C-alpha cells in the first residue's frame, strides 16, 4: 500500500466516528401556523413513562428496522405520538446531527403540520402539547447552568493498564445546559440544546 492509496481512502471522509455503532433517534420540530404567526410545537412526556417522565421534548424516537431513513423515523414517531395523518406533515429540512453521547446520536428534522389537522396525542406517551410563537422565541437567550461529572475510581475500568493508574489526571466533564422558561414550563437538556441551535439558525439566516 502506497501513500496515494492511503490518501484515496481517507480524503473527504465526512463520516462521524462512532456513528455506525451508536443508537440513533430522530426528532421532528413541528411548525404550525396559528394566530397569524408561526409557532413551534412541543410535547410534555407522559408521567407514566420510565424514561424522562414529565420532561418537555419534541416528537421523535428510536430508529426501527421498518424505517427506510432517519427522516422516516421522525415522521413515523410524530404520527404515532400526535395521532395525525402522514399527509398532514411536510418535512422542509434537516438540522445538524446532535451527538448526545458517544452512544446516542440525534437527527433533528424541521417541518410543517397543517394548521387545521386535529391533534390526538397518544396518552401513553404524551401528557400535553403546547406551542411557542417564533417571534417570542427568536428574542430569547437561554439561561446556562453547568453540570459536573467526575470519574468513578471504584468502577471496573482497567486503571492498572494506564500510566499513573487511578492517579491519572482525568479531566472532569462539565456540561453547560441551556434552560428556556415559557409560561411556567421549563425546557432543558437535549431539547433545549436543539431548540437553541434552531434559534441560532433562524436568527443567523435572517441576516443573509
Helix/strand/pairing class, anyone? alpha+beta
H-E order? HEEEEHEEEEHEEEH
Number of strands: 11
Query: Spans of 5+ residues with little confidence (pLDDT < 50)?
Result: none
In terms of DSSP E residues, the strand content is: 35-45%
Mean pLDDT, as a whole number?
A: 92
Number of helices: 4
Distance between the termini: 46 Å
User: What helical percentage do the residues reach?
Assistant: 10-25%
Shape: globular
The major beta sheet can be summarized as: 8 strands, mixed
**Rg over alpha carbons:** 21 Å
Protein traits:
208 residues, three-stranded antiparallel β-sheet, globular, alpha+beta, eight-stranded mixed β-sheet, 4 helices
Strands, helices and their partners?
Blueprint: H1 3-10, E1 23-34, E2 37-45, E3 56-57, E4 60-62, H2 70-82, E5 89-94, E6 98-101, E7 104-113, E8 126-133, H3 134-137, E9 143-149, E10 173-182, E11 185-187, H4 189-205
Parallel strand pairs: 1-7
Antiparallel strand pairs: 1-2, 1-4, 2-3, 2-8, 5-7, 6-7, 9-10, 10-11
Characterize the structure shown.
The protein is an alpha+beta fold and 208 residues long. Helix content is 20%, strand content 36%. It has helices spanning 3-10, 70-82, 134-137, 189-205; strands spanning 23-34, 37-45, 56-57, 60-62, 89-94, 98-101, 104-113, 126-133, 143-149, 173-182, 185-187. The strands form two sheets. Strands 1, 2, 3, 4, 5, 6, 7 and 8 form an eight-stranded mixed beta sheet that branches. Strands 9-10-11 form a three-stranded antiparallel beta sheet. The model has no long low-confidence stretch (mean pLDDT 92). Residues 23-155 form the Nudix hydrolase domain. Pfam families: NUDIX. It comes from Sporolactobacillus terrae. Its cofactor is Mn(2+); Mg(2+). InterPro entries: CoAse, NUDIX_hydrolase-like_dom_sf, NUDIX_hydrolase_dom.
